[in-house]
Amino acid sequence: MESILKFLYLMNLNCNISDKIILEAYKEILKIKDKEKSNIFISTLFTYLMLRRKDSQLITKLLEVSFEQDGFTPFKEKIKINSKYPVISLSGSGKKGIKTINVSTTSAIVAVALGANIIKPCSVATSSMSGSYDFLEMIGVNTNLSLEDTKRLLSQTGFGIFPIEKLIPKFDQVYGDVFYAPNILSYALAALICPLKPDIVLYGLANQDIEICGKILKNFGINKYRIVSSKIDNIYFMDELNIFGTSYIIDNDKTKKDIYDFEKLLKLPSYNQDDIKQSKNKIENIKVALNVLKGNSNSAYEEIVALNAGNILQLSGIANTIEQGYNMAKIKIKTGQCIKKLEDIIILSNGNVNKLRELLKG
């Protein structure tokens, strides 16, 4: 507790606090067995860092300490598959200001149906109705795949998954179910919890400081990436591109983020947050996403899924622009073939396709 107490005293005196003290305090917090006590200390430390020390080098060190708890190494093994398109790791920080359906996972299925290759680190929901892990498990995907099974599924279908919490169980005991808004580790944590090294990392952050993410990824050996975010107002952010408000993108070859207004660019109706909000329960939330994949959703949900699928397609080299990718996604969705692709993923994962079929009946 010595380093924790030192940190608390210096923080309350508004003193400068060295990286050494911060890291030592963090290491002590990770050893605390009392969940209530560790929650208090880790939330205090991370809130201080969000307000005072959003530094990519320090965040990198904090992430390294976090991974040491489980002996986890990000991107340990390079993956190669028989495809002319790159393998993209797709993940997001979560904890966004507006709770929606599972936009990134649904968009990934659409993009994969058009030839993209995606690795999806997935997690259970903390602040939303359903996380990516919840979504995939409830529709019947086998989420207990070995590394070899994941590589096989990726080669066969263009889609592979890694449950985040199962890769870092010791760290998750301290970190899990604590934060309901982006914290200091949100700048890269979900993007890094992938044992396979992709060709490109696509990461969404529910915060405006997306430039920091790329610096951290480079510290972990990722030189090709895209970071996205979107702003609804001056408070709330989402960890994907949005069909209203302002969207941001920064690639590895840029020093400043590009700004987009996709409502104008795509000539969309004027939507608002009520048009994309999550449903009243987990099952209904998943059914909304499935209706998009069936091609039965002429709504803002379809638009935001098509937009984010278009982003993946442009990054993959399947489309020349996000706008072209969006149009390709819209056409594919209307064919109903995205549901067939989802069925293939479930079956080839040795999952239970009857779960999906029961949900589609409702």
Written overview of the protein:
This protein is of the alpha/beta class. The protein folds into 2 domains: 52 residues, no CATH class; 272 residues, 3-Layer(aba) Sandwich (Pyrimidine Nucleoside Phosphorylase, Chain A, domain 2), CATH 3.40.1030. 49% of the residues lie in helices and 12% in strands. The protein contains 17 helices and 10 strands. The strands form 2 sheets. Strands 2, 3, 4, 6, 7, 8, 9 and 10 form an 8-stranded mixed beta sheet that branches. Strands 1-5 form a two-stranded parallel sheet. Helix 1 crosses helix 2, helix 2 runs parallel beside helix 4 and helix 14 packs across helix 15. The N and C termini lie far apart (54 Å). About 1% of the residues have low confidence.
Largest sheet: 8 strands, mixed
Strand portion:
5-15%
Structural class: alpha/beta
SSE series: HHHHEEHEHHEHHHEEHEEEEHHHHHH
CATH architecture title of the largest domain: 3-Layer(aba) Sandwich
| Computed Rg | 20 Å
Spatial separation of the terminal alpha carbons: 54 Å
The CATH topology of the largest domain corresponds to Pyrimidine Nucleoside Phosphorylase, Chain A, domain 2
Number of domains: 2
